[in-house]
Amino acid sequence: MHALLVIDVQNDFCPSGALAVAGGDEIVTGINALMADFDAVVLTQDWHPAGHSSFASSHDGKAPYDMMKMPYGDQVLWPDHCVQGTDGAAFHPMLETDRADLIIRKGYNPAIDSYSAFFENDHKTPTGLEGYLRTRGITEVTVVGLALDFCVNFSAVDAAKLGFKVAVRRDLCRAIDLNGSLAEATAGMTAAGVALD
Ligand code: VGL
Ligand code: ZN
């Protein structure tokens, strides 16, 4: 059984959004077309409370894209984005959300960011997605969405570490590419055994 995992195709990651990823909206039609080919479709939604610890605005003297040491490791500080209930946190209006079997939210813990669909950024706290996929008999996952070098990357690597067979369709992803993050993500996914299509 094979699941399509659609990562964070939300307004704030599309052009004119708060954390716009170049070309983020170009992948929506292709993702919609892919949905019918899978046994399960799962969407993730970045879903932060206002004042989230990953926002630069939550820390005196910090600017977006600065780094900060958190108890769980290094964290990029982002512009405020995907605040729960806002239009920026909503899915892109053209994304066929009605076809999703499951929508899983992440990043709701004020103190920890969550790039991966499987674990928060402490790499320990589960989101519950692993159990959902296993109990549905899923062994294989194809990952698409935003952003390739952050949430797609962490989700794909965690899925591979958990023993799923994983492919990333890079034509249906777009990257932020911050300080070499895309090259690092590509190397990390390859090392983890993720097939990069
Ligand atoms: C993401 C940065 C912050 C992503 C989410 O979806 O890749 N990136 N929050
Ligand atoms: Zn976020």
Automatic annotation (TrEMBL):
Residues 3-190 form the Isochorismatase-like domain. Pathway: Cofactor biosynthesis; nicotinate biosynthesis; nicotinate from nicotinamide: step 1/1. CDD domains: nicotinamidase. It comes from the Bacteria. It is an enzyme of class 3 (hydrolase). This is Nicotinamidase. Its EC number is 3.5.1.19. It comes from Sulfitobacter undariae. GO terms for molecular function: metal ion binding; nicotinamidase activity. Keywords: Hydrolase, Metal-binding, Pyridine nucleotide biosynthesis. Belongs to the isochorismatase family. Pfam families: Isochorismatase (PF00857). Gene3D superfamilies: Isochorismatase-like (3.40.50.850). GO terms for biological process: pyridine nucleotide biosynthetic process.
